[in-house]
Amino acid sequence: MSEAYLCIEKDGISAFPNIGFGPDSNKSTKLFVEAISALKNTVGSQLNESLALLKNVYAECSETNWDGYDAPPISPNAYWETMSFIRLLPSWIPKPDILGGTDGEIILEWYKNSSRLFAISITGKNELIYAGLFGPYSRNGSTYFGNSIPEEIINYIQKIN
Amino acid sequence: MPPISLIENLSRFIFNKKHIRNNNKGHWRAFDPPKNLRMSVYRTSDIIEEEIWNIGKNVAVSRSKTLKGRVDIAVSNVKANRLDVVPDDAPSIHANIVDWPARKEERMEIAMKLADASSGHRKE
User: How far is CA A37 from the centre of its chain?
Assistant: First the structure.
């Protein structure tokens, strides 16, 4: 169930320009490396927590009637598609809660309170079905999901926090 | 049983602990209807608390589940979302919330609104 990805980083944020010298340069390099390491740990930890929760929910909802109201088990396609979605989430997006749905889908939810929340139903059919309450107004809709998270979805998630 | 009135209270029994929020409201998933779009509820306005829980325990046994709690909602809130409540007398206090829209995303939005207007009660 786990996948290994080779991460090749080019001249990104974690590549400290190696043009200085002397004690001050050494000190700032060390601080920079520590900061980047802490950032990577935080981001990796959040991703791992979400993937672990997904795995638990998939196991909990693996039999018909898991909710007491005849819900079918979560479909394998919904599981794999949700895993892709979580991996594609930008690191600055808070991690969602994860639940089983009534139709074999997986629900991701961002929640502030009962009148400010956003949820996505991931069906495993390249479709994101969503709804949200944003205080005085509400929205619902559906959109295609392929290799990236649609901007409208990111915008709705941002409205919750 | 008398006809459904707007001031009546409906209870839906919960078998998943995540379906009750920590703020003592229902989770919207508790109001997300099953595939047949008939959401099972019980008319509990005239029933004492202890008896409501006894009904819930019986429902749990019939569904081979452990009762985790219940969510309550007024009929007026259900009808405000263009849904209807239809008694089916099986048993006498049972009813179904019906007239859900065909589109899943619309049902999710309505479920969120119902949850916001609901109260959640965990089984001790």
Answer: 21
Cα separation, B69 vs B90, in Å, equals 21
Provide the shortest C-alpha distance from residue B21 to chain A (in Å). Answer: 9
Chain A positions in Cβ-Cβ contact with residue B18 (cut-off 8 Å): 97, 99
- A64-118 confidence digits (pLDDT tens): 999 999 999 999 999 999 999 999 999 999 999 999 999 999 999 999 999 999 9
| 3-state secondary structure (DSSP) of residue B38 | coil
- Rounded distance between C-alpha atoms, residue A94 and residue A111, angstroms: 10
ipTM confidence: 0.93
Cα A101–chain centre separation? 17
Q: Which residues pair with A133 in a beta bridge?
A: A117, A138
Q: Is residue B105 within 8 angstroms of chain A, CB to CB?
A: yes
Residue with tokens 């707007």: B6
- Residues B57 and B14: their CA atoms lie apart, in Å, by 10
Distance CA A128, CA A118 (A): 12
Give B85→chain A minimum CA distance, Å.
18
Distance CA A150, CA B106 (A): 20
Average pLDDT over residues B24-45: 96
Query: Any chain B CB within 8 A of the CB of A133?
Result: yes
Of B10, B120, B17, B124, nearest to B70 (Cα)?
A: B120
Helix then strand then coil, % of chain A, to nearest 5: 35, 20, 40
- The H or E element that residue A158 is part of is helix A151-158
Place of tokens 């709705």: A156
Q: With CA atoms as reference, report the closest residue to A13 among A44, A36, A45.
A: A36
Is pTM beyond 0.90? Reply is no
CA of A128, closest CA in chain B: separation in Å? 10
